[in-house]
């Protein structure tokens, strides 16, 4: 009986010992698996994005030829008008003189964008009273940073360059360079570039939607910058901690955290300014959070 009890106690202690040792042995399951991408040297053209001001290219300001009382001819803002169309009369109310009413006519084919005085209002001579615009012709103004002017100066007037993007929509419309200021504003550090949009031309191509285009809308313009050669990695390799940007680099199956500087991004790729070498392999996917210095299993792409 005693010998049986002693044998049972021995086996119990042996099991406890094996269990304790097993806990101290690293589990293979704790080792994370990663997928890598090689750092490559490529020609990289960054995308330049700038806020833009959208306005009508052609505006005609109508003024009164004489003083008097204005009478609008049943026309309101938004109405389409023809060149020479009678828009209003200005009547002289001086009881001593019976002057013929002065005619206010449209000077261009277009749309009445704004009236500045109400019907039967008193107006003075040479007073601005209305604005006529050509609704299909737009001018897009962009402030170009001084260090990017070289890119824009290579484009000739009348040449297509860049796209207009309507904020909140996927619609993109091609821009044509109208002109580039020959100087940099010392207050802003930018030079003004102007581009044109002709809706009549764009509407010939059903691929473009121009219904939402209206002066004053919040827009931005995108341009392809000069191509430069540099080190490129997938954007999925980037990690962030506070203001630090870093990637995971694997050498001999050891994960190492590497701080980098990003120069630009485009189409899911990132141009690296500093922190990597051509022969490096960066982590683009992992099975879990990997600690710096940890051993990892590299999966084949």
Question: How does this structure look, described?
Answer:
- With 301 residues, the chain is mostly beta strands.
- The protein folds into 3 domains: 30-44 and 229-299, Beta Barrel (conserved putative lor/sdh protein from methanococcus maripaludis s2 fold), CATH 2.40.420; 48-56 and 136-228, Elongation Factor Tu (Ef-tu), domain 3 (Beta Barrel); 60-133, Beta Barrel (OB fold (Dihydrolipoamide Acetyltransferase, E2P)), CATH 2.40.50.100.
- Helix content is 11%, strand content 50%.
- It has helices at 2-24, 149-153, 199-202, and strands spanning 32-38, 40-56, 59-63, 68-72, 80-81, 86-91, 102-105, 110-115, 122-123, 128-133, 137-145, 160-166, 172-180, 190-198, 219-234, 239-241, 244-251, 254-259, 261-266, 269-274, 281-286, 296-299.
- It has a 6-stranded antiparallel β-barrel. Strands 3-10-8-5 form a 4-stranded antiparallel beta sheet, with no helix packed on it.
- A hairpin with a 2-residue loop joins strand 17 (244-251) and strand 18.
- The protein is elongated and about 125 Å long.
* Head-to-tail CA distance between termini: 64 Å
Helix content: 10-25%
Query: Which strands sit side by side, in order, in the main sheet?
Result: 2-11-14-13-12-15
- Beta-sheet strand percentage? over 45%
Overall pLDDT confidence:
86
Low-pLDDT stretches: 20-27
The SSE string, one letter per element, is HEEEEEEEEEEEHEEEHEEEEEEEE
CATH architecture of the largest domain: Beta Barrel
Computed Rg: 36 Å
Count of helical regions: 3
Basic shape: elongated
By DSSP, the count of extended strands is: 22
Q: How many distinct domains?
A: 3
Query: Can you tell me the CATH class of the largest domain?
Result: Mainly Beta
